Here is the input.
Amino acid sequence: MALKSSLSVGDILKLSHTAWKLGRAFTRGTKGAPSEFAEVERELNGLSEALKLVAESLHEDDSILSQAEDQTKHAVNTIFESVAKTLQDLESFVERYQVIKKHDSGYDFLEKRSWSSVVLANYRTFKWTTEGGDIHALRTMLQMHVDCIDLTMQALQSRSLTRLKKTVMPVSRNVASIHDKSSADLAQRIRDAHELIAHIVNNPPSSEPRGRRQTASHFPPFHDIAGYQDERNARVVDWNFETGTPSHLRGSISHGRDWCASPIDSAYAGECSRRTSLRRESLTIPALLFATAGENHPPAASTDSRPDIDEEKIEPPMMPPLPPLPLHSTRRLPQRSSSRRSASQSRSAELPPPPVMPFGAPRVRQPVATPSHFFPSHWTESEVTEGVQTARPRMKSPHRETVQAEARSVNLAAKFEQQLLRNAAILCDVRGRLVEFAQHNPEILDMRYNVEMKEACKECRILVIRKRENREYGGTKVVTSVWCLSDDNEVRLQQKLSESQETVPYCSYFEPEKVSLEPPDEPGAGLRFHAEEWGGMLKEEKKTNWINYYFAIESDAINFQSAVFGRMLLGSFRTTKTTVIHKGILGAFAFEEQFANIELLRLWEEDGVETPGAVGGVMALMHISSSFGEGWARWWINNSRQPVTIKEDGVKYARVKGIDVTVVRPGATARRARSASSSVAGVVDTSLLHATPPLPSTSPSLSPSSSPSPSHLSSSSFQPQHQQHQPQHHQPIKTTSAVVFPTPPLPPTTTTTTTAVPITTTTTEKESSSSSSSSSSFKKVSGVRIEFKNEEERGKFLHAAELAQMRSVPLPEL
Here is the structure.
């Protein structure tokens, strides 16, 4: 699709058709298509429309480009060659990754092109340009091409060779470097091109009349004012060109089409309907700069006042008009013959006199678009400065103001992102649909309904970043945070992860794209809303205990979980019930204990960072039922030191034996927290001192609630119940170092007489209660029976476990 050496209207129309065809390939409005595809389609449609307008402009009047220098023509051709290169690369990508599907319409089979599933699942990681840019870089590159073409068309419509050259030369050099792979990154090159275009728009090059290459100071001296007046009258121009519109009803070309308007904008469309007449108007004509309907005419003494010209009596000259000269100018034009002078005098006699200004009216001068030394010497410096500053008024349309605000926001967002990613390790970079957090509503008293989810951000970029930060009282620390940067540059959200504890992500059972995090109870662990500028004061900080992240696709949720947990997620398998398998024959007659409810069983691969010495280990993770225990249960799948057996058991069941899981009993954590707080406060529980003494055959270090081993029990432990609970009448003997209990009397059936032998213990009551509570706070699980949601889920788990056990390694204990 490369353009020829000589620019052709047909080549540009061909590019316009190619851009339109590629826009159709991105299927805007199709259900399931990503939002990025619709954005690329809009840019391609805008590029197609801009190319078509340039082709029409060159076809109607190509005199400006034909009169330009070869260097200028080459620069214009370079701009279109860059467009052709981008469209050619994109067309090759579309042809490669689109598939043809046949659709039965009832009468015939219709062929429909659509993207392959590989592209739809990984379109964010694909390289959409030959320079290595992603889909966002492709969109900005297309937008840059549209801006370059609009800028070139404005330079062509100005009918100024100087402005055309000063516009296209720097743009062509910058655009040519876009496709240079040896230079800086693509995003920086595109950003430089946008900055250059914005600079040219805000500071347009100075224009010169067509056909005049010399400046005003090169004219010979001139002393005869009549000769200049003759020359001026002889070179009267038909201001109406083709349309015949009065000059005082027209604005300059800069007042017409808004450069920032898109081809589908209303302002753009309204101006394109008049492009035939506006293309004929020149920015160098003083009357078109500020003459608007309703303005006052200049005073009669002004040399810039031009009376209306009878178009039927005066023929249009072949050369463009010269700028007006002041009375005290020292320049001189070539002398004219007397016949020409008489003819010009006769013509000026037929013109109507200048308008008469009332006496005492304020002196209003018409600003002119000429160099500063053209102004009369009796003008003050303030008047000259005012005329120069107002020579090019900028019409601020709502669309222009919106685009400028968006440009400022984009610049701030780019600087914020640059500072954020500076010297940082990016663990994850994915797309998110929604981020919400839990907030308590104190107005609702019912605890079941007083929590509502508040929206924090949507349509955003979610990153997990590990970065070094300064401590509050000196020094540095490494902090891992989750950042959310919204697409509209309005929200910059941060959630810091715990520094001392690992963060286990919760994955939704019914929505695989949803991941939840529970912030730790640490200072600064809530949601922090940052300002637009890096390092500014926080806009807001929300305290919450639950945050939901909704991702665009399931693979993004998997990458996010792996980055947060510090291990690679191999698979998630849905289960409906998990029960405990008891050892021995008595296990068959034991009651069924439910280990977990409807939960996800996930397999993670260790890399040795979170668990030292566990490189290559595959760990199973499942949340325990609240009625059975607290927290998470985890065990190794491929530990060579402790082999695990996994077998099928029915259609949807699987038995896992050989595991060693220690489960914390329900409420044990709260009890230990209460005892710890009591110890810190200095409170001693004296209820044990006055409690019923234990049996003589039972060690005092064991409480009735403990589960002692058979070696710690004597025969009296198995006495009948009525004997064990007989009332005791002996009081314990209290000492400072130990507690001595007398031996209780034997039952009446016993004939042997005994004496009270005090039993001395060296263990304090506080240590006794703590050891007994610790032994009763945990329980061991060596096997579980898992019921999966369906046979397919069970098959996936067995296959993943088999692959993991094929590479068994010695692993440390969890």
